[in-house]
Write a structure and sequence with these properties.
The complex is a heterodimer of chains A (502) and B (359). Chain A has 502 residues and is an alpha/beta fold. Helices cover 32% and strands 26% of the residues of chain A. In chain A, helix 14 (402-414) packs parallel to helix 15 (432-447). With 359 residues, chain B is mainly α. Chain B has a single domain (69-353), classed as ABC transporter involved in vitamin B12 uptake, BtuC (Orthogonal Bundle). The chains are: A alpha/beta (502), B mainly alpha (359).
């Protein structure tokens, strides 16, 4: 810890926040010192986000006391929170894409000379903010012309422009590559040295061990413990998060692989992937590994009928897949769990049951008349099977935690009773409890003879679940690995092409 | 393929490593159906409030005759016309495409078509008018569904183009059913569209509206089309990625509004006994307002046809009170506009309060 001798920059004492029917934050006390990175971890739904929303001024009815810089602060609106020096960096960017970096950075406080904008001064201020996050960009560029990770850094610069004393970062690395993460960590180090208190929320425990000074674990709205990072192990944190000791996370199941179910030959979608051929058998979990941009998602979208192939064939149990629309494909038993849960996966404003039945509407209808009752047993069974919480079919999906939303998405595709289930990042951004349930559900599905294609950037997940992993690089299948050769290291080496061709 | 939806028989009953969380929250179990009942009931409660307002105004002497049987009949007849258009409009709003602004001239245009064809045969005239109406709906649905045109802009444009066509073809003239050489029997049938009353009381438009409401409510809640429309309206991209033919669903909703607009247009043309471009004027906004007051939010995927009927009732009572008060047409438009803005605003605010904005 760099500076803990100093006073706490933020003190939250006995803070609670109730929603109708639940206590989202239950008597939590939490403090962050100036110049400290204090990690906040917990499963989805543990109350981290609500705690941070309180800090951001989203609620005017929380209870308890919050002190900033030693003085009591009433954070009843976002403006008040900002004025007290709280800066929030969310996963989703809040930048306006068509306008320039300068205008985004200085939104609401553009320097003026008389009636007019002082362009020279605006440019200079923007340049200064950009360099504080290590960016060397033309501040006149519109946001849409810069890359995703640059935009993320601009977002940080924007928040820094308000001179915050407390900075909250919510999963800041989820969209970044390795090098970009390193760059972000360097910036965080710099912010620390400037005495800014940083709340760091992440599911990614190794990151926390790299940059945090202390870690606080939350579960079910309560604070479980706060520990110095040097005095706690990863296993202890996980145990506190899930409230039980984690057994062998991936237990190797007995594999009984059957005949070929999915047979893909010389499949191409020009510009995305080329000449892809493989067979996947009944009961097999076939991992697909590759960096982002390798063509994994594009391949999945063709296999599922969302996009059309330019060349090649897809056979299911020895017969060509009939038809060309996604409806045709899913009626023949191909389910595709998208990586984009909120936009393509779920209608978040609708209820759990509406979503779970949404891919099988025609099958639940006869003569155009839809029978919800016919789908209800399956919905209830899936809710139980996947431990969707709360177990209420009529709950609006958007009000569930991220992990439970992901379970609903999986339930939707299990309801199709797939012969082939294509999973695209099935556990991205979900908590450990949900991840375990999703994994065991995948394994059980495979045990019933379903073929699973698992696309994942989570290497332990690929290693732990796959019977075989196909490596994709730049739109080509370059090799396959049986599970006993798979390790995080071997997959990463193959996917990045270290020491290999291309 | 042996896919009947309810489940793989051998599916795992429970998942290892976790138990279902105890303390099942049953309070929320019935909230959804309950809240939609409250919403719909709320619309009718407001309608009753407006009735009470009318009675109060009569008691204070500000208006007279509000509570008379004749006036009640006037209200119901007006509600029928708005309601017919609003049922169709509800499908477009529910699909997430806001509104079909082309219904005023669809109503006018199909009125002309009907009168022109009346000289051959009454039923042919009706079929011809409906056919033309459906074509307009198909065009709107195709362009909005397939090419993702902005529904408001596109249908407004179609409204004006259709108006131009009317003025070109009929050289700015109104036409009269009895002056185009139609057989008197056909003219009599045409007049009866609006004037036929069962038991000397219940008008044909009212019967048609009730049928449309019942069928509409059934289609929206009990058919595969309705369920697909709900998902499409809530999240078009999720609908597409669920294998739903979004273009077709949207197209059908525009065909439905064109159909009900045509029926409404025929009733109005029969009422006025003249084919005129302005026959449907104002029905775009009246219908949208009825839909929104009826609890269907502009964001799509929410609301019921029964609520929309309540909304039409409110619009009908309000118009009647304003007319009795001697408020001019333009001022009436202003009041309706203000109510529309207020309802949309309150909806947006209350949804945000409930945290159901989009999540």
């Amino acid at each position: 810890m760099s500076d803990t001798s100093s006073r706490p920059a933020l003190e939250m004492k006995h803070v609670s926040k109730r929603f109708p029917g639940t206590v989202a934050v239950d008597d939590v006390s939490y403090e962050v010192m100036a110049g400290e990175v204090h990690a906040l971890v917990g499963e989805n739904g543990a109350g981290k986000s609500t705690l941070m929303k309180i800090l951001a001024g989203s609620f005017d009815d929380y209870t308890g006391e919050i002190a900033i810089g030693g003085r009591t602060a009433l954070l009843h609106s976002p403006t008040l929170a900002k004025r007290h020096g709280v800066g929030m960096i969310y996963q989703e960017l809040s930048l306006a894409r068509p306008i320039s970096i300068t205008e985004n950075l200085l939104a609401g406080r553009l320097p003026r000379r008389g009636l007019f904008l002082d362009k020279a001064r605006a440019r200079a201020q923007a340049g200064e903010l950009l360099s504080s996050v290590g960016l060397d960009l033309d501040p006149n560029l519109p946001i849409e012309d810069i890359s995703q990770h640059e935009a993320q850094l601009v977002e940080i610069a924007k928040v820094l422009g308000n001179n915050p004393s407390i900075l909250v970062m919510d999963e800041p690395t989820s969209a970044l590559s390795r090098e970009e993460v390193e760059r972000l960590f360097a910036i965080i180090g710099d912010l620390k040295s400037r005495g800014i208190a940083i709340v760091y929320i992440s599911h990614h425990l190794p990151e926390i061990f790299r940059i945090a000074d202390r870690v606080t674990v939350m579960r079910d709205g309560k604070k479980i413990a706060t520990r110095l990072i040097g005095e706690v192990t990863r296993e202890e944190i996980v145990q506190m998060m899930v409230g039980r000791s984690v057994k062998e996370f991936y237990q190797r199941r007995e594999r009984s692989v059957g005949d070929v179910r999915l047979s893909v030959r010389k499949l191409s979608r020009f510009g995305f992937f080329h000449d892809v051929s493989f067979d996947a058998k009944r009961g097999e979990i076939l991992g697909i590994c590759g960096l982002s941009g390798a063509g994994r998602t594009e391949l999945a979208r063709v296999l599922t009928g969302l996009d059309r192939a330019d060349e090649g064939t897809i056979e299911l149990d020895g017969a060509r897949v009939q038809g060309s629309t996604m409806a045709d494909f899913l009626n023949q038993g191909i389910s595709y769990l998208t990586e984009d849960r909120k936009v393509e996966g779920l209608a978040v404003r609708l209820a759990v049951d509406d979503n779970v039945m949404s891919a099988v509407i025609d099958r639940l209808s006869s003569g155009g008349v839809f029978s919800k009752a016919r789908g209800r047993p399956a919905v209830e069974r899936l809710i139980t099977e996947l431990s969707i919480y709360p177990p209420d079919p009529s709950r609006t999906v958007g009000n569930l935690s991220g992990g439970n939303q992901q379970k609903v998405l999986l339930a939707k595709w299990l309801a199709n009773e797939p012969r082939v289930l294509i999973l695209d990042e099935p556990t991205r951004g979900v908590d450990i409890g949900a991840k375990m349930i999703i994994h065991s559900s995948i394994e059980k599905l495979a045990a019933t003879g379903c073929t699973v294609l698992l696309i994942s950037s989570d290497l332990p997940e690929l290693v732990g679940l796959s019977d075989r992993v196909m490596i994709m690089r730049k739109g080509h299948f370059i090799r396959e690995m049986p599970y006993h050769e798979c390790s995080e290291e071997s997959l990463l080496l193959a996917a990045t092409g270290e020491g290999g061709a291309t | 393929m042996s896919n009947t939806m309810p489940g793989r028989a051998d599916a795992p009953a429970a998942v290892a490593g976790t138990s279902t969380p105890a303390g099942i929250d049953t309070r929320a179990l019935r909230t959804r159906s309950f809240s939609s009942i409250v919403n719909t009931a709320g619309v009718y409660a407001i309608a009753v409030l407006f009735l009470a307002l009318g009675a109060l105004l009569q008691a204070t002497g500000a208006i007279s005759g509000f509570l008379s049987a004749q006036n009640m009949l006037n209200i119901v007849d007006a509600v029928a016309l708005v309601g017919i258009a609003a049922v169709g409009m509800a499908f477009v709003t529910y699909s997430g495409n806001f509104a079909d602004m082309s219904i005023p001239t669809t109503m006018g245009f199909t009125g002309y078509i009907c009168i022109e064809l009346l000289r051959y045969n009454f039923w042919l005239a009706i079929a011809g008018a409906i056919g033309v109406g459906l074509l307009i709906g198909l065009l709107n649905g195709f362009v909005v569904g397939k090419f993702k045109a902005n529904p408001i802009i596109w249908t407004l444009a179609v409204n004006y183009v259709t108006m131009g066509v009317i003025r070109l073809v009929w050289v700015n003239k109104q036409i009269y059913p009895d002056l185009v050489g139609s057989p008197p029997s056909a003219v009599a049938l045409f007049d009866a569209i609006y004037r036929l009353r069962f038991f000397n009381l219940i008008g044909l438009p009212l019967v048609i509206m009730v049928v449309l409401v019942v069928v509409g409510q059934f289609v929206l809640t009990r058919t595969s089309f309705g369920v697909k429309l709900k998902i499409t309206g809530s999240s078009p991209r999720a609908a597409k990625a669920s294998g739903i033919a979004v273009e077709r669903v949207v197209m059908l909703s525009f065909v439905l509004v064109a159909f009900t607009a045509t029926i409404g247009g025929l009733a109005i043309t029969s009422l006025s006994r003249v084919g005129a471009w302005y026959n449907g004027a104002g029905y775009d906004f009246k219908a949208v307002t009825a839909v929104v007051i009826g609890g269907m939010t502009l964001a799509g995927g929410r609301g019921t046809i029964l609520g929309v009927l309540g909304g039409s009732l409110i619009i009908g009572i309000l118009n009647n009170i304003m007319t009795l008060l001697g408020i001019g047409t333009f001022s009436q438009d202003m009041v309706r506009g203000a109510i529309f803005i207020a309802v949309v605003g309150i909806n947006a605010l209350s949804l945000r309060r409930l945290g159901r904005d989009d999540a």
